[in-house]
Amino acid sequence: MKCLIVGGSGQFGITLSKILNKRKNYKIDITTRSISKTKSKLKKYGLKKVRLIKLNILNKNQILKILSKKYDYIFYFAGQSSPDLSFKKINQTLESNYLGCKNFLEILKYLNLNTKFFNSSSSEIFSDTKKKLNIFSKKKPISPYGRSKLLSFNLTKKFRKIYKLKTYNLVLFNSESYFREKKYLIPKICLAAIKAKNSNKITGFGKLDVIREWNWCEEQCNLILNCMFKKPNDFILSNGKEYSGYQMLKYAFNYLKLDYKKYIKNEKKFYRKKDFKLKRSDFRKNINQINPSWKPKIYGKIIIYKLIKYYQKNKIV
After folding, report:
1. d(Cα 71, Cα 51) in Å, to the nearest integer?
2. By residue range, what is the domain housing residue 68?
3. Are residues 82 and 121 in the same domain?
């Protein structure tokens, strides 16, 4: 089975590639803006059995050439993924999350391919609510990132309903892995605890009272594998385990036997321009669509412990 992972150098691209690599009947191609940088990154994480293809997702001629190879599955993971940064990079966020996706859908329609297309969406597409979220919940994003993801969500759905393409939306809640960029909250928390342990360093944070479902990326990718064999639809992939930033912070510092209050400070420069205080999923309703027997194994303190051990072992600070 031929798989194309668009934007394959991020945590989802790397994680899904590693899983598919273990299966004998999958051939994986990854698109990237920089062959040399991505090759070095994949080598670092022990990912060898993939082919790299240079691609500008805004260039439809390049996409046409690539898709003429007739892939069985296409995973669209490209895109600027920071809600906070999206306020500063509005055009880049829109181009990468929406226009690139639009180009792929239009070329798939033009070639009349039977390919299954998976668009990575986000919990940021929903409105601010205390209710548990399912795929039909009200959608009203508050950031350019969320708006760009909602545009691609709606377009992916449109191409499925009107043009009968085999298109899927994968609505992903917060995800963590060894490959996650260190600027995000959970890696920052883990690294702050390590720095406090090693050198008594104090780290500045924004608001830590936000509540999220932090997932382990590999578990979400295993759910994606389940979705691959479902009828084209829209799915929420999250574990239903909610924790505040403070809870995750306490897990990290307690693990290293430290009092976090001595090593963190609140700094307004880290506040997001706009943010949701709470994001939680209607886990049982969502998971029944994918695999009713599935249960998460890695969440909460387990995520924190895994990351700290990995960072310490690989001397990442």
Report:
1. 13
2. 2-175+216-237
3. yes
Amino acid (1-letter code) at residue 187:
P
Are 230 and 255 in a shared domain? no
- Structural domain total, the chain: 2
In this structure, is residue 116 part of a structural domain? yes
Question: What was the pLDDT predicted at 190?
Answer: 98
Kindly report the number of other CB atoms within 10 A of residue 44's CB atom.
11
Distance CA(259)–CA(254), nearest Å, equals: 7
What is d(CA 67, CA 111) in angstroms, rounded to the nearest whole number? Answer: 8
- pLDDT tens for each residue of 31-70: 999 999 999 989 888 888 899 999 999 999 999 999 999 9
Instruction: Let me know whether 56 and 131 are in one domain.
Output: yes
What CATH number does the domain containing 259 carry? 3.90.25.10
248 is written with which tokens? 């995750």
Number of residues that this document lists for the chain: 317
Number of CB atoms found within 10 A of residue 202's CB: 11
Rounded Cα gap, residues 9 and 214, in angstroms: 21
> Taking 90 as the threshold, does the pLDDT of residue 72 lie above it?
yes
pTM above 0.85, yes or no: yes
